[in-house]
Design brief:
- β15 and β16 form a beta hairpin.
- The chain contains 20 helices and 17 strands.
- It is elongated.
- By secondary structure, it is α+β, with helices and mostly antiparallel strands.
- α1 (17-58) crosses α4 and α18 (577-592) packs antiparallel against α19 (598-629).
């Protein structure tokens, strides 16, 4: 043997290539095992230091330390890590001879079998060659027993107290204890900008509640390293929807938030030379300024905006002219900004909707139910009682069974509804029987377009005996026109026109054609003046509207006088005492309107309506007396009114 060590991976000329390949693989495993045994103890020390750093971070120690302490702690950990890694600088990769020696030890066979397989024979002596071949055959037979074995770094010799196991257990515990704040707590170790920040850095923080709350801003800190103005009992209560503003006068600004706080874009640019961040507070949460350092952690408890409440203070009342008066109570923590009244048809029970064993089709209204805003005691009412009067006497829903619901809203968008109230909507009172019949059929058609055939049948029935029900030719022609218009109506818009025509015709019959326009003009003038007073119109506009109201009231007085002259007793006969009192009162009211205020004009208009009703009642009773005491048929025909 010449002592030359050949490469076992080279092709074998003697036919033992497979054995040499297995030897090469075992030799590679032995090399890796020796390298792992040499490097792992130092790597284990480094991992122990890293684990200890994570334990300290996830435990929240950095959050409790000032910036200078964080910097010192981070430098200490870095120094320990470098000291642990220093022995790795002497690390050397295992040589081939060391790997062969490990294989020889691992085989458990004497005479170094792995090393023997790498020897070669240089002698040409036949006897020596025979001995060489015999020796290789015995070695190859034992090649299966050559093993590199598992690495044995013997960490117990380097860590006799098993500190690595203790660090691992605490690491797992702090991992779960940190929860969602793991990244934030770990990053706190590297936020020690305050150590290098200039001394004139200033941090201001405050909470701005929503404008509608009327609350002033809450100052959290006035300068760097000052304590926050937090109550000692717990979190700071702020209205939900508030905005947290943090401003730094120099250096970088880093704010970490959690819970119901979310960063939003500033509404306006920050002052020059400052950094500013805005956070919307929608729920409970915390905020902490990490850079510049020295600021405490602020804890907020968001107080949600409660929904307003609204309820009827008393049952709705009918006014003299058919108006609806609502009295209601509203309440809200920051103030009600708007309220409405919503009216809908009363729902029909399942039993009531069945006729002759057949279920009726659902109603198809031609008009939307009336809705109107309510007057609030103040622009933003927190607790008060309001009152609204709305004239719905001309609405198609007047006289129908409805459900009244009041709604109230606040600035935050919260909405509340009152308990539904079932009622019959007030309507205008018609004394003429034909006018009453037309208004009733108008309401039936307006609330259910499917009943147009029933309404047509009713109109046709009123024209069966004109000499009894509609002796006046104009009334008969008006009914005929309405019936033809309804018969030709094929769309909802056409039927809506029929509804309007029925109302106009009923008012004409009731008011004899003249008083209707007078009353409409008076109501229009009153409504215009009322709207102008509510919106705070100019003095010139109020004067002009007041003058129009005086003119309308003067026209109403003239109409009352005209109608009084048409009493059944005849114009040449003196007025009875009752009629004379009414006329005197009308003249007195006319004189009062000359210098009346807008509020007084509204009161005078109500008195005029009362006089009109008294006059109509007297005329009705006079007509009855005249019909009873007059034997002449011609006189009876002249006194009979259309449809009465």
């Amino acid at each position: 043997m010449n002592g030359v060590t050949p490469d076992p991976s080279d092709p074998i000329r003697d036919g033992d290539a497979l054995s040499r390949l297995k030897l090469a693989q075992a030799l590679q495993r032995a090399t890796y095992a020796i390298a792992w045994e040499r490097a792992w103890p130092n790597l284990a020390r480094l991992l122990t230091v890293v684990g200890l750093f994570l334990v300290v971070s996830w435990a929240g120690l950095w959050l409790a330390l000032p910036s200078i302490a964080r910097a010192i702690g981070l430098v200490v950990f870095a120094g320990v890590a470098i000291a642990v890694l220093f022995p790795l600088s002497r690390f050397r990769w295992p040589s081939r001879a060391e790997a062969l020696a490990r294989l020889d030890r691992g085989s458990g066979i004497r005479h170094r079998p792995a090393t023997t397989l790498t020897d070669t024979l240089s002698s040409q002596d036949p006897v020596a060659q025979a001995l060489w071949r015999a020796q290789r055959e015995r070695t190859l037979a034992s090649i299966k027993r050559i093993r590199a074995g598992l690495p044995q770094p013997r960490l117990a010799l380097h860590d006799p107290w098993a500190l690595r196991a203790l660090v691992m257990v605490v690491l797992v515990a702090t991992f779960f204890a940190a929860g969602d704040e793991r990244a934030m707590r770990l990053g706190a170790a590297f936020h020690w900008n305050g150590v290098l920040a200039p001394t004139n850095v200033r941090v201001d923080a405050w909470v701005t509640p929503p404008l509608y709350t009327g609350k002033p801003p809450i100052i959290l800190s006035a300068a760097n390293k000052e304590a926050a103005a937090l109550p000692a009992s717990g979190p700071l209560a702020v209205p939900a929807g508030s905005t947290l503003i943090v401003r730094s006068s120099g250096g970088s600004l880093d704010v970490v938030v959690s819970g119901g706080l979310k960063e939003v874009a500033p509404t306006e640019a920050a002052p020059k030379g400052t950094n500013e961040k805005h956070f919307a507070i929608s729920g409970d949460g915390t905020a902490h300024v990490r850079a510049p350092s020295g600021q405490p952690q602020w804890v907020f408890a968001a107080t949600p905006d409660r929904a307003p409440t609204i309820a009827l203070a008393k049952d709705p009342e009918r006014q003299a002219r058919g108006g609806l008066q609502l009295t209601y109570k509203v309440e809200d923590d920051y103030g009600v900004t708007g309220a409405d009244a919503q009216i809908g048809l009363r729902t029909v029970d399942a039993k009531d909707g069945v006729k002759d064993g057949v279920k009726e089709a659902a109603a198809r209204p031609l008009f939307q139910p009336p809705q109107f805003p309510l007057v609030l005691p103040n622009a933003r009412t927190r607790n008060g009682v309001g009152q609204t009067v709305k004239d719905l006497s001309e609405d198609p829903y007047a006289g129908a069974d409805v459900t009244l619901t009041l709604t109230a809203k606040d600035e935050a968008g919260n909405e509340a509804r009152s308990e539904p109230f079932n009622m019959r909507l007030p309507e205008r009172l018609f004394t003429n029987s034909l006018a009453r019949a037309l208004v009733e059929q108008r309401r039936i058609l307006a609330l259910d377009a499917n009943k147009n055939s029933d309404v047509y049948a009713a109109l046709d029935a009123l024209m069966i005996a004109p000499e009894l029900f509609t002796p006046d030719a104009g009334c008969y022609l008006g009914l005929r026109s309405l019936a033809l218009q309804l018969e030709a109506a094929r769309t909802d818009d056409a039927m809506r026109d029929v509804v309007k025509s029925m109302w106009a015709f009923a008012v004409t019959i009731e008011d004899d054609g003249v008083a209707g326009s007078v009353n409409a003009a008076l109501r229009s003038a009153q409504d215009a003046l009322k709207r102008a007073l509510e919106r705070g119109a100019s003095e010139d506009e109020i004067k002009a509207l007041t003058q129009k109201l005086r003119e309308a009231m003067a026209g109403k007085v003239r109409d009352l006088a005209r109608r009084a002259e048409q009493n059944p007793l005849g114009p040449r006969q003196p007025f009875p005492a009752e009629v004379q009192l009414i006329l005197d009162k009308s003249i007195e009211l006319k004189q009062k309107t000359q210098n009346a205020t807008p509020e007084q004009l509204q009161e005078l208009a109500k008195q005029q309506d009362a006089l009109r009703e008294q006059l109509q009642a007297y005329r009705k009773s006079a007509n009855n007396r005249a019909k009873t005491g007059n034997d002449g048929a011609n006189q009876s025909t002249r006194d009979r009114k259309c449809g009465s």
